[in-house]
Design a protein that fits this description.
- It is a single chain.
- The protein has 14 helices and 14 strands.
- The protein has about 500 residues and is an alpha/beta fold.
- The chain has 2 domains: about 325 residues, 3-Layer(aba) Sandwich (Rossmann fold); about 120 residues, no CATH class.
- Strands 1, 2, 3, 4, 7, 8, 9, 10, 13 and 14 form a 10-stranded mixed β-sheet that branches. Strands 5-6 form a two-stranded antiparallel sheet. Strands 11-12 form a two-stranded antiparallel ribbon.
- Strand 2 and strand 3 form a beta hairpin.
- The longest helix has 22 residues.
- The radius of gyration is 22 Å and the shape is globular.
- About 50% of the residues are buried.
C-alpha cells in the first residue's frame, strides 16, 4: 500500500508545464526572463446569508513576498482574505494539501462565504461554475485567510526549478516559509493580538501540527485552536504491510462504511462494532498468520460480510483489502471505478479489461474544471485582481519536484503532541469522512488514542461524518462539521 501524500492527485499523473526561471523586480532581467509584476492588493465588498443572517464582508486578494537570507525576493505567495470589522474577531489561516494543491477546495467548497458545487456524486465538470452562498461558512465567527503555497493557485517561485525545489518543495522549508507568511500577514494587517486558528485539509493536515509548533517555538505566535480535515497525519501507518496488521486495520473500517452507506445503514452506531472488531479480533488474526487457519477462515468470512465483496476476492486477498484493487472490484460488474477520496463516487472505467487502473481518480478528474473556473472568475472579475498567469488548482509540477525530508515518514503526530503540551489551552479537532480511503479515519483514531491526555482529554478529538475526503460537499456533514468547529472556537 503506497502512502499517499496528495489531497487530490498522484505522482503517476502527467506533469504540468515546466516552470521557466523567473526574475522578480529585485532581480530584473536575470537569465533574460522576467514575469510581469503582480498587481497591488485588490478588494471588494460582498454579502452572504447564513441562517437568515446577512454578513457584509471585505474580500482582499493580494500577495506577500518570500525573501532569502540576502533579502532577495524568491517567491510571491497569493492569499485570499475574508474579513468583517469588529472587536475581538479571530482569524483563521487555511491550507489545502498536495503537495501541489491550492486552497480553493477549503475556500469554495468548505468554509468560505461562497461555494461552487463539486466533489459529490452526480456533479459534472462541465456544469456552470456558479458561486452561491455557503451555508457552512465559518465567516460568521472568524475571519478567513486562504493561502496558496508556492507553485499553486497564482503563487509563484521567482527562481528556477532547481532552486525552487531547495527553497520550497520539501517538508521542512514548506513549513518554515508558510509559517512566515502567516506571521507577515498578521503584522501587515495589525492582527497579532487576535485569537489565531489553523485549518488544513489532507497534506494541509500534515502541515497543521508542524506549523503550529513552529509558530509557537520559533516565531512567537500561538494558535488557539487547530482543525485538521481528512489529515495525512501518520504516513507510517501504511508501512510494513507484509507483517504489521496496521495498514489493513486503517482501511477495513472505511471500506465497511462504504458498504453500509450503499445499504442506507451508515451511522456511528453501526460503525462502532466494526471499529471494535478491527482493533481486536481482526488485528490479532492477521498477526497470527498461517499459525491459526481456523481463525483466518473466520476472519475472511467476517470481512466478506462487512464489505459485501465477492468471497473469492476476499479469500485471495487474505482479508487484506488493498485500496485500488477494492475500488475496481466493488464496481467491476457495472464497468465503473470508485474514488479513493470517496469510495461511493464513481465514474466509467475506460479500460475495464486492463490488469490495473489506467485512468485518474473519478473524483479528482471531476473537480479541477469547476474549481479552477470559479476561482479564476472570482479573483480576476469579481474582486478585480488583474493577474496574468495560469491558475493551478492542482500543480502536478510541484508534486513532481517535491521531496521528503528525513522525518517526513514519521508524520506529524510528534509535533501534535508537542504543540498540545506547549499550550494547555490549545484545542484540536480532527475531522474525517467515513468513506475516505486516501486518509482513512482509523489512522487518526489510533494515533490520538496513543497520546497522553495532557489535562483535559477532550482537547484533542476525532470526529467522523458521512462522506469521503471532501465530506463537506454533503450538506448534512458540512453542517455537523460547522457545529463541532463552533464548539472548538467557543461559539454557539
Amino acid at each position: 500500500m503506497a502512502a499517499l501524500l496528495l489531497t487530490g492527485f498522484t505522482t503517476a499523473a502527467v506533469a504540468a508545464d515546466s516552470h521557466k526561471p523567473a526574475a522578480s523586480a529585485d532581480a530584473a532581467g536575470k537569465d533574460g526572463f522576467q514575469l510581469p509584476p503582480f498587481p497591488a492588493d485588490a478588494q471588494v465588498t460582498q454579502t452572504t446569508t447564513v441562517d437568515g443572517r446577512t454578513l457584509k464582508y471585505t474580500v482582499t486578494v493580494g500577495s506577500l513576498p518570500v525573501r532569502d537570507e540576502k533579502g532577495n525576493k524568491t517567491a510571491e505567495v497569493v492569499f485570499t482574505a475574508y474579513t468583517i470589522p469588529g472587536k475581538d474577531r479571530p482569524v483563521t489561516f487555511a491550507l489545502n494539501g498536495g503537495p501541489g494543491a491550492s486552497s480553493v477546495y477549503l475556500n469554495l467548497g468548505a468554509i468560505g462565504p461562497k461555494k461552487v458545487a463539486f466533489g459529490d456524486a452526480g456533479d459534472s465538470p462541465s456544469d456552470p461554475p456558479v458561486l452561491h452562498d455557503n451555508p457552512g461558512t465559518w465567516l460568521g465567527f472568524t475571519d478567513l485567510v486562504f493561502i496558496d503555497p508556492v507553485g499553486t493557485g497564482f503563487s509563484r517561485a521567482l527562481v528556477d526549478d532547481k532552486q525552487a525545489t531547495k527553497d520550497f518543495y520539501s517538508t521542512d522549508v514548506d513549513i518554515e516559509y508558510l509559517s512566515r507568511i502567516m506571521y507577515d500577514w498578521l503584522v501587515k494587517n495589525g492582527r497579532m493580538d487576535s485569537r489565531k486558528y489553523y485549518v488544513g485539509e489532507s497534506y494541509g493536515g500534515f502541515r497543521g501540527p508542524r506549523i503550529t509548533e513552529y509558530l509557537q517555538t520559533r516565531l512567537g505566535v500561538a494558535m488557539s485552536g487547530v482543525t485538521l480535515i481528512s489529515p495525512y497525519l501518520d504516513p507510517s501507518a501504511w508501512s510494513n504491510d507484509t507483517v504489521s496488521p496496521l495498514p489493513w486495520m486503517t482501511t477495513l473500517p472505511s471500506i465497511a462504511a462504504a458498504h453500509l452507506e450503499r445499504e442506507g445503514k451508515l451511522s456511528a452506531e453501526t460503525m462502532a462494532p466494526i471499529i471494535a472488531y478491527t482493533r481486536g479480533e481482526y488485528a490479532t488474526t492477521l498477526m497470527k498468520g498461517r499459525s491459526d487457519p481456523a481463525a483466518t477462515e473466520a476472519m475472511i468470512k467476517k470481512v466478506t460480510e462487512l464489505t459485501g465483496l465477492d468471497p473469492v476476492f476476499v479469500k485471495r486477498s487474505g482479508g487484506r483489502l488493498e485500496t485500488q484493487a477494492y475500488l475496481r472490484e466493488v464496481y467491476r460488474a457495472e464497468g465503473k471505478l470508485g474514488s479513493r477520496y470517496d469510495s461511493n463516487v464513481t465514474a466509467w472505467d475506460p479500460f475495464p479489461h486492463a490488469p490495473s487502473q489506467r485512468t485518474g481518480d473519478p473524483l479528482l478528474n471531476s473537480i479541477i474544471a469547476p474549481t479552477t473556473s470559479a476561482m479564476v472568475n472570482f479573483v480576476t472579475q469579481t474582486v478585480g485582481w488583474k493577474v496574468a498567469g495560469r491558475y493551478n488548482a492542482l500543480s502536478y509540477e510541484v508534486n513532481r519536484l517535491w521531496h521528503e525530508d528525513d522525518d517526513a515518514r514519521e508524520g506529524s503526530v510528534s509535533q501534535l503532541r508537542k504543540a498540545v503540551a506547549n499550550d494547555p489551552k490549545l484545542r484540536v479537532l480532527i475531522a474525517h469522512g467515513w468513506d475516505d480511503l486516501s486518509c482513512p479515519f482509523m489512522v487518526s483514531v489510533l494515533a490520538v488514542d496513543q497520546m497522553p491526555a495532557m489535562g483535559d482529554p477532550t482537547r484533542v478529538q476525532v470526529k467522523e461524518y458521512p462522506g469521503g475526503h471532501m465530506f463537506y460537499s454533503r450538506a448534512d456533514s458540512q453542517a455537523a462539521l460547522t457545529r463541532d468547529v463552533k464548539a472548538l472556537y467557543g461559539t454557539r
